[in-house]
Design brief:
- The strands form six sheets. The protein has a six-stranded mixed β-sheet, with no helix packed on it.
- 10% of the residues lie in helices and 39% in strands.
- The chain is elongated and about 110 Å long.
- It contains three helices and 21 strands.
- Among the domains are: 114 residues, Immunoglobulin-like, CATH 2.60.40; 45 residues; 82 residues, Immunoglobulin-like, CATH 2.60.40.
- By secondary structure, it is mainly beta.
Length: 346
């Protein structure tokens, strides 16, 4: 039967009244909570109006509520049951040079420094490669130890297949070649933080007869032949260096020469670290072939450039943004001059 307009209007009014009644009943039955800090989140039950949730963990501070921003204040700013989570940082220490076989320069030790975390902590130190073992002879075993470790024991021959892992606050290393060492720290709440440092290492043993002898790069003072590799007893080293202050322990390669020849002819690289954009400044006094070479941690060349018949002041913009983040060595040769500097790409 077809309803009249009057009947339809009556039905509409009836539905509206029912909806209002249901809403009133729901409102009457709702549980309200205090919101003393007016942040929209409730805390304690009240009979009057207010938020219908009890999610606020601190009703006296409007900045503390679910979804709030966690800051280092020893409070649970986002009401998730954790304090200052995600704010922990760790410092693994600065890069280091290691000279395997040279007693005074072969051992590197770093202790993780933790900030804004909650002890007790657990630590995991890792290296980006496996240990090198039995290098030249049985004395050529790298060391990586601290606490409980895996894959850090050298076999009777060959080397382990997996990178070592150690669990302690302090790591100790004695390396034959470059490596990146990282630590990951986990606090009692489960928050984690990581940091890394690089060890620039080489085998300082000269392997000419007794292993008590080490390589020394001797500064001759000659423009045509500025560096000469010699092999001397470690016991004789202090007396040798006292008369040859320009010498250093290690081989006369580009990386170690950087320890002695850094500021030749106004050489500089800025800014450093950078995202990949650097400015090289250098003064060349003669017409010569200038070569620029960049190598990674394992000595592989990742960039080369040759400038013929260059003389005068260099102010060269370089873009290494195509390289992965990490530490590299930039070398510049100008005739008999060799200058080097580590660059860091972030």
């Amino acid at each position: 039967m077809k309803k009249t307009t009057k009947q339809l209007n009556i039905l509409r009014i009836t539905f509206c009244l029912l909806a209002l009644m249901c809403a009133g009943l729901n409102y009457a039955n709702a549980q309200f909570y205090t919101d003393d800090d007016n942040d929209g989140y409730g805390r304690l039950p009240v009979a009057a109006s207010g938020p219908t949730n009890a999610d606020d963990c601190d009703d006296n501070d409007a900045s503390i509520h679910p979804g709030g921003t966690e800051i280092a204040n020893n409070l649970d700013d986002d009401c998730d049951g954790l304090v200052d989570e995600g704010l922990m940082t760790v410092n693994a220490g600065s890069d280091a040079n290691g000279l395997f076989g040279y007693t005074a320069g072969q051992d590197i030790s770093r202790t993780a420094s933790v900030s804004n975390g909650f002890p007790p902590y657990t630590y995991s130190w890792t290296m980006d490669r496996a240990l090198i073992c039995n290098f030249f002879n049985s004395a050529g075993d790298e060391l990586f130890y601290g606490g409980t470790c895996t894959d850090n024991i050298c076999p009777g021959s060959g080397s382990p297949s997996n990178a070592p892992v150690c669990n302690a606050g302090t790591i100790n290393c004695r390396l034959l070649a470059n490596a990146q060492v990282c630590v990951t720290v986990t606090d009692v709440q489960g928050s984690t933080a990581s940091d890394c440092f690089v060890i620039f290492a080489e085998d300082a043993r000269c392997h000419q007869g007794s292993n008590t002898k080490i390589n020394v790069c001797h500064s001759t003072g000659s423009q045509s032949n500025p560096w000469v590799q010699i092999c001397i007893s470690e016991n004789a080293l202090p007396a040798h260096l006292s008369h040859n202050s320009g010498d250093y322990v290690g081989t006369c390669d580009a990386r170690q020469a950087a320890n002695s020849v850094v500021a030749v002819n106004g050489f500089s690289i800025t800014p450093n670290p950078s995202s990949g954009q650097f400015t090289i400044r250098y003064n060349s006094g003669v017409n010569a072939v200038v070569k620029i070479n960049v190598t990674n941690l394992v000595g592989q060349s990742v960039y080369t450039e040759t400038i013929s018949d260059y003389a005068g002041h260099m102010d060269k913009q370089m873009d290494f943004g195509f390289l992965k983040s990490g530490v590299y060595m930039l070398s510049l040769t100008d005739g008999s001059n060799l200058v080097n500097q580590k660059i860091v790409i972030e």
